[in-house]
């Protein structure tokens, strides 16, 4: 039985409480299921924003994703429990290893090695699952070590599309899903797969803005980027068909877009429901 589709939307900036309330209510009316907040220095603080979003509308809230290395597990569990309680159980806590060295330096925190950050992510996840067993935890990443932690512990696994196709690996997304399935074993059937969409059309031309996607793959040509499962092109009806095909091929049923994709992608949601 295929999972029901879910749709998340990221909020990257806030101008005022009133504007946030208006934005979140519009997203809820458009059919989005979850408002996602990132965790970067220079961006709004995740926990207050999630609480304000939960107060604004009957919509789930989540982090996409917290820099786990910024937090001690017990303190993170305390804050997550409070938001989950005050939102009526609407929190989905997304975690990642953290990767921007400059943010650690700005925060006065030593930049751990990749291995240390992965180990801390695992320790944090295990602590959260033991302390708050009913709280849905999302882990996002692409590498073997992070996806192994996700496969063993997460309720939701955030995929990034696996990278660019090549002769050796013509479908990186399928390869990553296969890796997760093997690592998860019997629990794979209970795991929800999420895909972070990086490009969506914003007008009726159906041509997506590839700026964000190109930032991750600066040497790639447009044809390579347009072929990625994280890039959506065409009319809302065509994109709806693409997402149905993604669910059939990869098992992904939960898609996250950015707030500037919101109005166009809302037409996709309408085409699917």
Task: Give a verbal description of the structure.
The protein is built from eleven helices and nine strands. With 273 residues, the chain is α/β, with parallel strands linked by helices. The chain has one domain: Luciferase-like domain (TIM Barrel, Alpha-Beta Barrel), CATH 3.20.20.30. The protein has an eight-stranded parallel barrel, surrounded by eight helices.
Radius of gyration, whole Å: 18 Å
Instruction: Work out the helicity level.
Output: 40-55%
Number of discrete helical segments: 11
> What do we call the CATH topology?
TIM Barrel
Please give the largest β-sheet: 8 strands, parallel, barrel
pLDDT averaged residue by residue: 96
Strand order of the largest sheet: 1-2-3-5-6-7-8-9
Distance between the termini: 17 Å
Total number of distinct structural domains: 1
* Shape call: globular
List the helices and strands and how they pair.
Blueprint: E1 6-10, H1 17-30, E2 34-37, H2 46-56, E3 60-63, E4 66-67, H3 73-86, E5 91-96, H4 101-107, H5 114-131, E6 137-140, H6 144-153, E7 156-159, H7 172-184, E8 192-196, H8 211-216, H9 222-226, H10 236-250, E9 252-258, H11 262-272
Parallel strand pairs: 1-2, 1-9, 2-3, 3-5, 4-5, 5-6, 6-7, 7-8, 8-9
Helix pairs in contact: 1-2, 3-5, 5-6, 6-7, 10-11
